[in-house]
Amino acid sequence: MTRKKIPIQKIDNTAARQVTFSKRRRGLFKKAQELSTLCDAEIALLVFSTTGKLFEYSSTSIGQVIERRNLQSEKVGRLDHIPYPELQLESSTYAVLSKEIAEKTQELRQLRGEDLQGLDLEELKHLEKLLEGGLSRVTKTKDERFFREISTLKRKGAELMEANQQLKQQMEYFPHEVQAVVAQQGQPSELTTNIRSSTDSSKGYNSSDISLRLG
Fold first, then answer.
1. Is the pTM here over 0.85, yes or no?
2. What would the CATH number be for the domain defined by 14-76?
């Protein structure tokens, strides 16, 4: 006995309509869950019955799915407002830039000594010139930095010598300054006594030398 096929049209009987709604809703949510599980799809379903009651299903979160849908609509709306010639220009520019990036990447690999098998003699000569030019610039930069460091060291050495000379001059005048300070304070010390002894002995030497010359 074959199952009678229900025609797809509004069910006039209210009770029958409610029963069909309940069965079909459960079947719909089950199919949505299976689709989400099998295909890792993000699904959200909102269903209102004829009485206004809300039924919902979501594989993640209803709010999250709605927000994602709104963002997608905004992106499509922005693209719709861009004139077609501008889209073509941007696409062409992107293609040119992509090609340049690919070429520069390949050139950089070759400068590192990689992917050289497909180069002919002229291309290898060109690559050699590039390497020589790069090496020359590196050497020049290295020499300039080396000479700058030497100049800096010489300047610091001259500053240290000048500071040392100034300190030496200050040490030479130090005994005279001590005598002057002690004389002002009226407090003789062992240091000033030694200084005076040294001075007196020097004076005595000079006077004896004079007497010998006179004799």
1. no
2. 3.40.1810.10
